[in-house]
Amino acid sequence: MKPSIPKGTRDFSPAEMARRNYIFNTIRSVFSLFGYQPIETPAMENLSTLMGKYGEEGDKLLFKILNSGDFLRGVDRELIDNNALSKLTSQLCEKGLRYDLTVPFARFVVQHRNEIQFPFKRYQIQPVWRADRPQKGRYREFYQCDADVVGSDSLSNEVELLQLIDEVFRRLGIRIVIKLNNRKILAGIAELIGEPEKIVDITVAIDKLDKIGPEAVNAELAERGLSADAIDALAPLLSIDGSPEERLDKLSVLLSTSETGSKGVDELREILGAVRSLGLHAELDLDVSLARGLNYYTGAIIEVKAKDVAIGSITGGGRYDNLTGVFGMPGVSGVGISFGADRIYDVLNTLDLYPSSLLSGSKVLFLNLGSNEAVASMQMMKKLRAEGVSAELYPDAVKMKKQMSYADSRSIPFVAIVGESEMAENKMTLKNMMTGEQTLTTVENALELLK
Amino acid sequence: MKPSIPKGTRDFSPAEMARRNYIFNTIRSVFSLFGYQPIETPAMENLSTLMGKYGEEGDKLLFKILNSGDFLRGVDRELIDNNALSKLTSQLCEKGLRYDLTVPFARFVVQHRNEIQFPFKRYQIQPVWRADRPQKGRYREFYQCDADVVGSDSLSNEVELLQLIDEVFRRLGIRIVIKLNNRKILAGIAELIGEPEKIVDITVAIDKLDKIGPEAVNAELAERGLSADAIDALAPLLSIDGSPEERLDKLSVLLSTSETGSKGVDELREILGAVRSLGLHAELDLDVSLARGLNYYTGAIIEVKAKDVAIGSITGGGRYDNLTGVFGMPGVSGVGISFGADRIYDVLNTLDLYPSSLLSGSKVLFLNLGSNEAVASMQMMKKLRAEGVSAELYPDAVKMKKQMSYADSRSIPFVAIVGESEMAENKMTLKNMMTGEQTLTTVENALELLK
After folding, report:
1. B33 at the A interface (CB within 8 A)?
2. Count of other CB atoms within 10 angstroms of residue A224
3. B110 at interface of A, judged by CB pairs closer than 8 A
């Protein structure tokens, strides 16, 4: 009987909204400080835009919208008899809910190519939907916060994005490690061990190194058809140690015969050099096992982990060379990052890092002592609001005690009382709910206290 | 080949986002100033929550989401053979997209009744989706901005909401008329003409008075089964004139035999009296033909029209006595309003009322003269950003002219040049793009100019 919401979705109360808006506003401010501009795209995209972009599994996880009106018209009944779900879906549904912000962004760039100034720096903060099995920390509706620049292959974009990441987490007070890699280094490694066409298999397998350990990775590599020699050749490359600069020096030697690999090393060196000279709060780490499972990265790969909370990556991104090719606009290089708002929310909660002043209710509650008193109160509230002080009137003239406990439970810091005697003097009694202190004051003097 | 988006949906460019955010931020600030607190609900609701709440037509206009996985399992094949679309829909789909913010809010209140402090003042700014036929000014995805207070039947809530509306449009610079009515007056009228059970028919018909004129309304009333006597008796009531106060006085006499009608007059008088004594910028109008076609209003009915643009209502609302009853929680009275962001956007565009400083791109573009110069520029940008000045680097070291025209087309007001000679002095050449003026300056002095 009690109403509920679909599993994997959430309601957000005022207290949760205050915390979430703190995160979104922080990210939004920094995006803007770095010259990124906002866009928004529709929640619904044509399925032709979405299908085939996230792999076979992704296609299944798209939420599809049943066509309006006579949705059975033109549907091939044989598909129903044969339970041909996938084909049937494309006849029943033309639209789906957006699955991430990257594909809609690529579609946006191609569709509006003639109105856009390139290089185009955009940010986008919107929810996405995935029909994943809900579990702790994984939702079917969640927000992504993406910043991308397209139409430039300069490494200064990577340098800027690393600074942007650093500034967001500095403002949030979260200590982080930024892990860096370059897809070209992975390609160089595949080349070096004589399995250049196996780069995707190698990438997918070694991406799991942290989770499943080297032995299981080797088993998976063997399963994916890598020779024992190749697996042996891979081992020393995956266990290079030292500072990022030391690792790059060692990699540079190991990959010297691979042109692609060397280019990857050079790119990372340039990015690292610039970022070091600018100075970051974050710790930097070079991690050649970092691949982020995504096949579309072609250059830098970036991942951020919180230092003080054991949770997956809280931000990630990288460079892609052909984001818009699939929509008929080839040769547009780009680089972007995506902040995971929900995990950042969990980290801030775990570490209790929210500013104490966050709950943004009214500054003052006017008690309601009757209709004349209410109008007199509203006169005063009008003056307070004109100066930016949020104020509300308890709407019903119920017992004082009930009204006071309402102020208390809502954490409203001041209560104003305008009774007969106050009305006669055109004043209010202002009570500080923290200290209990009461003052009889004009609205002008109250302003001083409340501002 | 060129990608597109579903009809009735929109992409928003940075320039459009700036305008839309101006509207949303204005409304949000005023909501907050009046003590309303934000909540958010999921885009998807269970269809059991949504169906039957918007009438038969509304049920059809809901976007439904195809069940994930084997959506044919358990589906009654006979329904397919019989083209029983409506029953089939409920087997194929468990979830739908939210159609407005009111029903999700009612569901929220019931679901979280034990955590909520009543009276509960909440606002909600989120998109809604309707499978309406798209036309000029009507979209399939659009934002609603709602503020409601539930758990109080005090008329001070109406008074507060009218002030809130007034303040929003004052800030936006839109001159408005606020039309007021009360459902109890409509009920009184129906009682008076001896057709109390026909109130819904009367309401629906006279709501069209402005659009189709009195004759067509009378024809419709006859069609809906009203006697000629009743229609004659209705005429004088619908053409009462004078100031709102004068109209109320006349209505008070006409409706004196109807208890409900008299109560409606008294309520409006109290609201009007309080609002007048507080002072509004908006013009007030009493319109007994105002019904807003919604059957759930039980008291005050509010509608806002722009004075200087011929467009439908740009805000509306009213009191309802049993919002949550349908979810098993009776007796919760509430009153709310909803701002139509898209129409307000159109009005502001038509009247060209946006602040000139709205486009919020970077304050300064650093030209890129090579990689050493770029790093030197980024050092300076870091100092500017630390003081809140948004800055960006043109990422590629292409021709100056191209970089300058990028700054121009993006309306970036300042360009900074850090070449070899500037680097030697640790300075920049700062160019004001409006005046063409150039200055050689330190970053500290540049800050003064840019802040």
Report:
1. yes
2. 14
3. yes
This prediction's pTM: 0.94
pLDDT digits (tens, 9 = 90+) for A283-334: 999 988 888 765 678 999 999 999 999 988 999 999 998 889 989 999 899 9
Interface list for A 112-131 with B (CB within 8 A): 112, 115, 117, 119, 121-122, 127, 129, 131
Contact of B25 with chain A, judged by CB distance below 8 Å, is answered with no
For chain B positions 79-108, those within 8 Å of chain A (CB to CB) are 80, 83, 85, 88-89, 92-95, 97, 107-108
Least confident span in A60-69, A139-148, A231-240, B3-12: A231-240
The crossing angle, in degrees rounded to 10, of helices A259-278 and B371-386 is: 40
